[in-house]
Every structure is written in structure tokens, then in C-alpha cells.
Amino acid sequence: MSENLDAMARRLGEMQAKMMQLEALGERVSGLAGLNPAEIKVQPGRGGVSIEGKPLSLNEVKSVMSELEQASDLRVDMLSIMESRLMEQKIRSMMVPTQPPVSGPVGSGFGWRIDPFSGHNAMHSGIDFVATVGTPVFAAAGGVVVSQEWMSEYGLVLEIDHGQDLLTRYAHLSRSTVRKGDLVKRGQRIADVGNTGRSTGPHLHFEVLVRGVPQDPQKFLTASRAASPPALQAKR
């Protein structure tokens, strides 16, 4: 009996450690899912008519403990997979340009318009944010600066690669606070609004390209973060 009690005590200790592991995993997963961990910890209500049965035998107790142990192992595996998937989704959402690069109104949208220089119908490959010179420009998503150069039409321009064939372009800048090869975070200040290149006045020209093809940036800026990445939708 003493040996059986010692063995059960060891198994109870192992199960206690697994329950602590499950609790920690549950808190991390609920945090990634946007849930309140405190709500998950609330004990469910129990009740009903009490009908006494015979006391459990030692073998029955061992059997129940074995079933609980197997169930806890399964839940640890499931929560670990969920944590990994949620983390991947969170990272992916941070790499999609859903944050406006400038705080200001849109002066010119994406698509066909009358060119302000030639007066002819022309394709506008991005959107223009109205802002004064020196207004901070922020990264619409995390990524790597792949280009920082002067171009005749864009003036001082920055390009950030976000992976999955997704790239953002920031043009007509007055100055840049990052360089080619820098890692940037979503919302990080990367430049200042200017009036360089082919421009009629101070503003930020913002483009989103998927596999080199311009997309309407508004579709990204207004997309819900809970939805699938617009970059993937654009590829389909």
C-alpha cells in the first residue's frame, strides 16, 4: 500500500506540473487570440442531486489518473499547435500594410485621372496624402528597406519589402530616416513628407505593389486585421 501511495504521489506531481504547463499555454494562446485569460480561469458551475456510489478502488483511481494524463498530453499538443498558428497569423498581419503612412486626408486616389502636368488621362499607381513638408511618414507595415534613392518622377523615394511579394513605396520625400537594408517596424518613422520630383505641391505618394503590380492601397488600409492578408487575396 505504501509503494502504491508513493507511486500515485509521483504521478500526481507529474500531473500537477502538466496542469501548470496547460495553464501557461492557455494564457499565451488566449492572449494571442485577444481573449481575457481571467475569464478562462473561472470555474464552471456544478450542481444536481447527489446519488452516492461505492468508493473507488485503487485500480479505478489509477485508471482515472491515466485517462487524465492522456487527456492533458493531448491538450498540451493541441494548444502548442494553436499557439504556433496564432503566432504565424499575428506576424503575417504585422507584415501587411494596413496602417496609414501619414495622418492626413487623401488628395488623389488610385486609378485613372487627369494628369496635373499633361492634362491627359493617365493611370495613378498609388494614393496621395495631403500634408505639409516635414510631416512624419510612418511604415505601413514591418519589413526591410530595399531601396532609398532619387528618381526623376518620384523624387526621394523609399521602398520596403514586406515578404510574400508585397512591397510599399513612399515618394516625393524631403528626407529619409532609414537606409537600404534597415529593418523597420509597423508605425516606425521612416521619412518626412516633401515636394521632390514630379510634384505640384507637398504630399506623400504611397503605393502598394504585389509581384510588381500596383494595387489600390485603400484596400489594404481599410482591411480588417482579422481578415486574410490582402496580399494573398491579390495573388488569387
Summarize the structure.
The protein has 236 residues and is of the alpha+beta class. The chain has helices at 2-32, 37-41, 58-94, 217-221, 230-235; strands at 106-108, 111-114, 121-124, 127-130, 136-138, 143-151, 155-163, 166-176, 183-184, 189-193, 203-210, 213-215.
Please describe the structure with a list of short key phrases separated by commas or semicolons.
5 helices; alpha+beta; Glucose Permease (Domain IIA); two-stranded antiparallel sheet; 236 residues; rod-shaped; ten-stranded antiparallel sheet
Over all CA atoms, what is the radius of gyration? Answer: 28 Å
Fold-level CATH name of the largest domain? Glucose Permease (Domain IIA)
Q: What is the CATH class designation of the largest domain?
A: Mainly Beta
Model regions low in confidence, pLDDT < 50 over at least 5 residues: 224-236
Query: CATH homologous superfamily of the largest domain?
Result: Glucose Permease (Domain IIA)
- Order of helical and strand elements: HHHEEEEEEEEEEEEHH
**How many structural domains?**
2
What's the count of strands?
Answer: 12
Distance between the termini: 66 Å
Please state roughly what percent of the residues sit in beta strands, choosing from under 5%, 5-15%, 15-25%, 25-35%, 35-45% or over 45%. Answer: 25-35%
CATH-defined architecture of the largest domain = Distorted Sandwich
Helix proportion of residues, in percent? 25-40%
User: What is the makeup of the main sheet?
Assistant: 10 strands, antiparallel
Q: What structural class do the secondary elements suggest? A: alpha+beta
Overall mean pLDDT score? Answer: 81
Number of helices in the DSSP assignment: 5
Overall shape: it is rod-shaped
